[in-house]
Every structure is written in C-alpha cells, then in structure tokens.
Amino acid sequence: MANKTVINNSSTEKGVLQSAELYNYIMDTSVYPREHQCLKELRAITSTHPRAVMGTAPDAGQFMALLLKTINAKKTIEIGVFTGYSLLLTALTIPDDGKITAIDMNRSSYEIGLPIIDKAGVKHKINFIESEALPVLDQLLKDPENKGTFDFAFVDADKDNYANYHERVLELLKPGGIAVYDNTLWAGTVAMDESSVPESKLGSRKASIEFNKYIAGDARVQISQVPLGDGITVCRRN
Ligand SMILES: C[S@@+](CC[C@H](N)C(=O)[O-])C[C@H]1O[C@@H](n2cnc3c(N)ncnc32)[C@H](O)[C@@H]1O
C-alpha cells in the first residue's frame, strides 16, 4: 500500500487499543494517507527528541481537525505546544484569518517545529506565548473582550492543572465552543490497579482519574471521552 507507514514504538505505547495490528490498520487506512505533508515532517523531526512521545497522536489530531471544521473554529487557544504537532494541525485547519493563542513554558521545543510551521504558510495565525499557562489564562480573562469569545481550546499540558485550566477555558469559550483535553486515559493506566502502574506514571494517573471524575460531574458541559491516541475528552460548553 503506497501510504503504508510503520508506526514507531512510542505511538503503539500511547494507543489505548490493545492490538497493535488494529491500531496500525486505522493509521494506515484512515489517518496517514490524509495527514498533511508538513505534519508528517513535523513528526519526523520530533521523532528523535527524547520526549517524542509527548506529540499529539495523529489519530486524535485527525479527529480534532474534524471538530475544528465542524464548528468553523476561528479563534482558538492551545495549552501545551511542545514541537507543535497539534498547533500546526490547528493552524492548517482554521481559516486564513483565524488566530491561535498558543502557550507553553518552553519555547525551545516550539522552535524545533517552527521552520515547518513557517514552510506550511500558517505562522501568521499563531501568537506563541512562552509562559506558565495559568497566569496567561488569568490575564486573558481580565480583558472582557476575551470572555466567551473562543471557539475551541486544546489542553495538553501538566495533568495536575487540568481542572484549573478547565475553569478558565470555560470562561473563555463561547456557548457551543469546544474544549479537548488530551491524555485522559494516560496510556490506559487510569483503569489499571495502582500496583501494576510504573512509578513514573503514578502522579499523572492520579491527576487524570480525578479530572475524569470532575469533568463527568460538570453539568456546564456535554462530554465524550474518546479512546483515540492516549484518550481525549471532548467537552462542549452548554
Ligand atoms: C504533551 S506536550 C504537548 C504536546 C503538543 N500538543 C504536541 O502536539 O506536540 C506538553 C507540553 O506542555 C508544556 N507544559 C507543561 N506544563 C506547563 C505549564 N504549567 N504551563 C505551560 N506549559 C506547560 C510542556 O513544556 C510541554 O511542551
């Protein structure tokens, strides 16, 4: 098959599907053949990064692009950029006059992907802010022009703060706006016995379990937890 792509181990580990064959089937049939060339390039240059596993999974990204198009998102916010896979995907999907506020406390990772974002011709849509995310969100909320004006939010940063991000993101989103939270299944560990979870995953596993309960009880949003990539929770602000 012309578009057949061998997935690297990190992608397989990230997936919550318990069959690598089925995961490969989905990727090779529906995801990789439609993935923009610049996104492929961004994945390739990220693959040598020691923390390459942090990049958003292409299957989850494809679904996110579908959501962005479905709601005609134009003004978006992203918390957690890394080398920019989800950022580039968003920038390629929203209209030419769309705007993304992208926050990450580490600009050097973003700079790895920046030449490809530039080559894709979408850099003008991005306002990258190097900072801890919470103070930036609080600052944005001080301006009444930002409240209730965002179409879409993607949250993919420190899991301990997901509930804090959610409270702020809800104020930024329009009614009907969508927030997507990444890694809410945390490599499947949320459903594992604690004793069988590697120690390195315990902290974010606990945070993910707490966030999943919190969001499931939040009547201000409609939700769906989707088992794509590492698990994404999609919320629509009522
Ligand atoms: C999982 S990666 C993001 C992956 C990215 N969405 C992609 O598609 O490649 C998480 C990112 O969140 C950033 N981060 C972690 N804690 C943060 C915080 N408190 N404020 C801002 N950025 C944070 C890290 O620097 C890292 O780049």
UniProtKB/TrEMBL annotation:
InterPro entries assigned: Cation-dep_OMT, SAM-dependent_MTases_sf, SAM_O-MeTrfase
Is Chaperone given among the entry's keywords? Answer: no
Q: What GO molecular function terms would the record report?
A: O-methyltransferase activity; S-adenosylmethionine-dependent methyltransferase activity
Alphabetically ordered keywords of this record: Lignin biosynthesis, Methyltransferase, S-adenosyl-L-methionine, Transferase
Please provide the Gene Ontology terms (biological process) for this protein.
lignin biosynthetic process; methylation
- This protein's source sits in the domain of life called Eukaryota
Query: Which family is this protein grouped under?
Result: Belongs to the class I-like SAM-binding methyltransferase superfamily. Cation-dependent O-methyltransferase family.
Protein's UniProt name:
Caffeoyl-CoA O-methyltransferase
Organism in which the protein naturally occurs: Salvia splendens (Scarlet sage)
